[in-house]
Design goal:
heterodimer; A: mainly alpha; MetI-like fold; B: 508 residues; alpha/beta
C-alpha cells in the first residue's frame, strides 16, 4: 500500500504539472484577451462559452480523454498507453482554464482605467500596457486563480481515473516519458482501498489516512503560498 | 539620461511597431478559443459516433432538405419580412410545443412504467385535495388569524398524505386511527389493478410459478387461470374458488400409470423410490407409492435427493438396501445423468428401473455412457382428436414441429376463449363457471380446425364442446383433466428420435 500511496503521490505531482502547463498560459492569455482586447460583444459570447468548459461533468472529460484524445495522441506518439497521464493532464488542463481565466479577468478588470490611460499618455502601445501595467498590477489576483485552479485539479478524481487508469506504479516526475504511462490518482487510490475489506489499524487502513493527510497538506501549502503571494504583490489603489 | 546623444534624439523613439501587438493579440485570441474549439470538436466526434450522419443515403439528405429544411426556412424568412414579432411568437409556440411534448412523454413514462398508475393517481388526489382546501382557506384570510390558517393547512396536508397518527405514531407503535387519503384511494377496490383488466390467464408454466402466481395474483384478483404444463399433484389441493384449471394431466395420474405398469408388466412386488426433493418429485413419488401399495405391492425405501449433487452413490445405496424388484427414479435430466452414471458404476444393470417424463430426453444414454436397456419411463402423451390439425397449423405458422406442451398451451387458450365467449362477460368467475360446460359436453363440437367459428357460436349462446389437440380436454371437479393419456417409453439410441414408445395408456 505504501507503493500505491507513493506512486499516487508522484502521479498527482505529474498530473498537476501537466495540467498547469496547459491551463496557466492559456488561462492568463484568455484573461488578457477578454479584459483588454475583446469588444463588449465578443466578451458577451466568449465568457459564457468558456464557462461551459467548467460546467461539463468531469466524467465526460474522462470519457473524451479515453475515447478521442488518447487515440489522437497515439498518432503522434505511438508508444502511448491506453491509459496515460498526458491525456489526463490535457483534459484537466482544459477543465480548469475557465477558473484561471475568469478570476484573472476579474482581477485585470479591477485595475483602474487611470493606470492604463497614464500608460497610453506616456506613449505606450496596447501591448506595453497589457503586459507592463495591467498584468503586474493584477498579479496577486492572477496567482490566486492559479492556486484555486490547481487545487481543483488536485481534487479531481473522475476524469483522471478514467483517462489515466488505476495502475499504481512509480514514475519519474522529471522524465517526460512518464506522461505516456498510466497511473493511479490519490483520490482514486483511496476509493480503491475502501473497496476491499479494511481491517482497522492495518496497513491499508493507515494508508487511507496517510493519503488523505498528504492531500490535505498539499492543499494547505497551496493556500499558504496563495495567501503569501496575494499579500506580497497586493496593490492598493 | 546617458543614452541621449548630442543630436537630441533617443534611440528607437518615435518608432512604434504594431507587429508585436498584432501577433500578441491573435495569440491571445487563439488561446481563448483553444478550450472552446477543443470541446466543440469533441462534441462533434460524439455526435458523429452517436448519429453516424455520413452513413445515410445522399437521397435521404436531399429529401430531408427539400421536405423540411427548405420549406421551414422559406416560411420563416417570409414571416420575418412581413412581421418579425410573428416569427418570434411562432418560434416560441413551436418550441413550447416540442418541449412540452418531450416533458409530458417523460412524465407519462414515469407514471406508466415506474410508478403504478393507481399510486400516481392516489398521490395526485392526495395533493390536490389539501391544495384546494388551502386555496379555499385563503379566501377567508381576513377573518381567520394567520396561525390558525397555518395550523389548518398543515393538518390538512398531513392528514391527506400520512393519516392519523402518521409516521410519528408508527415510530412509537401507536395504532392507525385514520388512513391517509393516499392510502384510502389506493385501497378502493373498484379501481382496476392496472390499465388492463386481466380476467383469464394461460399459465403459469411450471408448478412452482403456477402455485405462487395463483396464491398471490390469480385467486385474490378473481382471474381464471388455465395452466398448460404445471403437473404437480399439490395444485389440485389449492383453495382456488374453482378458478384454476389445467390442460395437462396431474402427476397423480402418472403415478397411477407407473404403478400399473410396474405391477402388471414388470411383475414387481417390491419397489424403492428415489425422488428429487421438490414439489414435483415428492408429489409424483407420493402418487406412485400410494398407487403401488393399492395394487398390492410394497415400497421398501423412499429416498429423496438434491439436484446438483456431485455424487448420488450413497442415496442409491440406501434406496437399494433391501434389494427391491424395481427402482423408480423421479427427477430431471440434469441430475438424472449423474445419478445413472453412479448407478451403473456400482449396481446391477439388470434391475428394472422406471423413470418419468423429466428424463424423457434422447441424449441421456449418450451422456451416461450406457445403453440403459433396463430403463423404461412414463410421459404424458399428446393424443387429442385435433392433434394432426394442430400439428399442421403449427408447421404452417412456425415452420417446425410442435414442441412439448405446445398442444396443451393451445388447448388452454382455446378453452379460455370459448368459456369467455360463452360467459359473455370479462369476468374471471364467470369464465371459470363456463369452463366445464364448454370443455366437457355439448352439441356443437369445436376443435382446432373450427375454433374461430366455435368462438362465434359460443358467443351466440350455442352449446359447444371442445375437443383439443392434446387431449379430449375434460375437466373434473378440481379443474384437472379427468383422463390422461400416457406412453411407456424406453431409450432407443439407434432410432432417429432416440426414444421409442413401448405402450400407450389412457387412464381415468
Amino acid at each position: 500500500m505504501d507503493v500505491t500511496e507513493a506512486s499516487a503521490e508522484c502521479e498527482r505531482v505529474l498530473d498537476e504539472i501537466g495540467s498547469a502547463v496547459i491551463a496557466i498560459p492559456l488561462g492568463v492569455a484568455t484573461a488578457i484577451y477578454l479584459s483588454e482586447y475583446a469588444s463588449a460583444r465578443a466578451r458577451s459570447v466568449l465568457k459564457p462559452a468558456l464557462e461551459i468548459l467548467a460546467g461539463v461533468p468531469t466524467v465526460v472529460y474522462g470519457f473524451f480523454a479515453l475515447i478521442y484524445i488518447t487515440p489522437a495522441l497515439s498518432v503522434v506518439l505511438p508508444s502511448i498507453g491506453t491509459f496515460n497521464l498526458l491525456s489526463a493532464s490535457i483534459v484537466v488542463g482544459i477543465m480548469i482554464i475557465p477558473m484561471v481565466a475568469s478570476i484573472s479577468e476579474d482581477a485585470m478588470s479591477a485595475v483602474p482605467d487611470e493606470l492604463r490611460q497614464a500608460g497610453y499618455g506616456m506613449g505606450a502601445t496596447k501591448f506595453d500596457v497589457a503586459t507592463g501595467i495591467v498584468v503586474p498590477a493584477a498579479l496577486s489576483g492572477i496567482f490566486s486563480s492559479f492556486i484555486l485552479a490547481l487545487s481543483r485539479a488536485i481534487g479531481e478524481t473522475m476524469a483522471v481515473t478514467i483517462a489515466a487508469g488505476s495502475r499504481a506504479q512509480f514514475l519519474n516526475p522529471v522524465n517526460p516519458a512518464s506522461f505516456l504511462e498510466g497511473s493511479l490518482p490519490m483520490t482514486a487510490a483511496m476509493v480503491q482501498l475502501l473497496l476491499g475489506d479494511i481491517t482497522g489499524g492495518g496497513l491499508a487502513y493507515r494508508s487511507l489516512f496517510a493519503i488523505g493527510l498528504v492531500l490535505f497538506v498539499i492543499t494547505l501549502v497551496m493556500n499558504v503560498i496563495s495567501d503569501f503571494v496575494a499579500q506580497r504583490y497586493r496593490e492598493e489603489y | 539620461m546617458a543614452a541621449e546623444t548630442d543630436t537630441g534624439s533617443i534611440e528607437g523613439f518615435g518608432q512604434v511597431s504594431r507587429t508585436v501587438g498584432t501577433v500578441f493579440r491573435y495569440l491571445l485570441l487563439a488561446a481563448t478559443m483553444f478550450g472552446i474549439v477543443m470541446l466543440a470538436v469533441l462534441l462533434l466526434y460524439v455526435a458523429n459516433d452517436a448519429i453516424r450522419p455520413l452513413t445515410a443515403d445522399p437521397g435521404w439528405y436531399l429529401a430531408f432538405f427539400l421536405a423540411l429544411v427548405v420549406p421551414t426556412a422559406l416560411a420563416g424568412w417570409t414571416v420575418r419580412r412581413r412581421d418579425p414579432a410573428a416569427l418570434t411568437f411562432g418560434a416560441f409556440l413551436v418550441g413550447t410545443l416540442v418541449v412540452s411534448l418531450m416533458f409530458s412523454g417523460g412524465v407519462a413514462l414515469l407514471v406508466i412504467d415506474v410508478v403504478p398508475p393507481l399510486v400516481a393517481l392516489a398521490f395526485a388526489i392526495g395533493l390536490l385535495v389539501p391544495l384546494a382546501a388551502t386555496i379555499g382557506l385563503t379566501r377567508y384570510a381576513h377573518r381567520i388569524p394567520f396561525t390558525t390558517r397555518l395550523a389548518a393547512t398543515t393538518a390538512v396536508f398531513y392528514l391527506s398524505l400520512f393519516g392519523l397518527p402518521g409516521p410519528i405514531g408508527d415510530a412509537v407503535g401507536a395504532p392507525r386511527v385514520l388512513p391517509s387519503l393516499v392510502a384510502f384511494v389506493q385501497s378502493i377496490p373498484v379501481i382496476p389493478v392496472d390499465w388492463m383488466m386481466v380476467t383469464a390467464v394461460v399459465g403459469g408454466a411450471s408448478t412452482n410459478v403456477h402455485i405462487s402466481a395463483s396464491e398471490q395474483v390469480f385467486i385474490p384478483n378473481g382471474m381464471c387461470a388455465c395452466s398448460p404444463s404445471a403437473t404437480a399433484v399439490t395444485i389440485s389441493q389449492i383453495e382456488d374458488d374453482d378458478l384454476l384449471f389445467r390442460t395437462t394431466p396431474s402427476d397423480a395420474l402418472q403415478g397411477e400409470v407407473m404403478a400399473q405398469y410396474a405391477t402388471n408388466q414388470l411383475d414387481a412386488g417390491t419397489a424403492a423410490v428415489l425422488h428429487v426433493n421438490d414439489d414435483y418429485g415428492s408429489a409424483l413419488s407420493g402418487a406412485f407409492v400410494s398407487a403401488f401399495e393399492n395394487a398390492g405391492g410394497s415400497v421398501q425405501q423412499e429416498v429423496s435427493y438434491e439436484t446438483s449433487a456431485t455424487s448420488y452413490t450413497s442415496r442409491i445405496q440406501s434406496a437399494l438396501q433391501d434389494d427391491p424388484d424395481m427402482l423408480a427414479v423421479v427427477g430431471y435430466a440434469e441430475s438424472g445423468i449423474q445419478l445413472f452414471r453412479d448407478y451403473y458404476a456400482q449396481f446391477s444393470a439388470d434391475r428394472d428401473i422406471m423413470t418419468v417424463d423429466g428424463l424423457n430426453t434422447a441424449r441421456v444414454p449418450n451422456e451416461v455412457g450406457e445403453p440403459m436397456d433396463n430403463v423404461v419411463g412414463t410421459a404424458p402423451l399428446v393424443q387429442g382428436p385435433g392433434q394432426d390439425t394442430f400439428a399442421s397449423l403449427y408447421q404452417d405458422a412456425f415452420d417446425s414441429e410442435p414442441g412439448p406442451f405446445n398442444a396443451q398451451t393451445f388447448d388452454a387458450a382455446a378453452v379460455l376463449m370459448l368459456a369467455n365467449a360463452s360467459a359473455g362477460e370479462n369476468d374471471g368467475a364467470a369464465i371459470s363457471e363456463e369452463m366445464r360446460s364448454v370443455a366437457n359436453e355439448g352439441e356443437m363440437t369445436v376443435s382446432p380446425e373450427n375454433l374461430a367459428a366455435g368462438v362465434d357460436a359460443a358467443a351466440e349462446g350455442e352449446d359447444v364442446v371442445y375437443q383439443g389437440a392434446s387431449s379430449q380436454v375434460t375437466f373434473d371437479d378440481n379443474g384437472d383433466l379427468a383422463t390422461g393419456a400416457y406412453e411407456i417409453w424406453k431409450y432407443a439410441p439407434d432410432t432417429e428420435r432416440g426414444i421409442e414408445t413401448v405402450e400407450e395408456f389412457v387412464i381415468e
